[in-house]
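Late entry, evening session. Most of the bench is empty. Finally got around to the prediction I had been postponing all week. Sequence below, unchanged from the version circulated by S.P.
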Amino acid sequence: MTKIHIDVMRRRWINGGEKAVMDWWDNPGERPWAWWRFSLPVHKRRKADSYETGLEALLEMDLLDPNERDYLEQEGIITKAD
């Protein structure tokens, strides 16, 4: 992720919130880094930052939406046991 990506996410977040960032983001099965920085309370953000990957944090902290979980299971990225 480059500084330009972060700047774009920040501007999109300020102008349209999470939906504006997600509409721009083109990596199915991932959330943009901005999601941690701009949505989570500080204590959860610190915990999320402690994981190796964003996906690991989303799984371990139970932050996946049901449709995200279904998509990741269908693509074989995670299993139902995850």
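Two things to note before I forget:
The mean pLDDT is 76.
Helices lie at 3-24, 33-39, 42-49, 54-60, 66-74.
Will write this up properly tomorrow.
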